[in-house]
Amino acid sequence: MALTHELVLALDGVFDLVAAQRVQDALNLVRAGGVLAIDLTKVVEFQDLGVGALARTVRQSNHAVHIVLRGLRLHQVNLLRHLGVDGRPAAGAQAES
Fold this sequence. Notes:
Elements lengths: L3 E12 L1 H11 L2 E17 L1 H13 L5 E5 L3 H9 L15
Helix pairs in contact: 1-2
């Protein structure tokens, strides 16, 4: 399968281990130096195990792909920070409380 330079992954419902695996699968489709934008604005429930798996995926990418997280709530931003990932929203965006 051909790799892409930019990919947007929009998720909804529950962010759990299955959703975190979808992020890993999407990351594998983006070439080094590319961008993976993960839109979580329609996620209604974040399970901490899923967020932990997301943090592991981001850390393991070693910045080969720029990962943009959209739609995180404050709890998830703080949890990611504790797990060594900067989950703060991009400039001009705000985390939801």
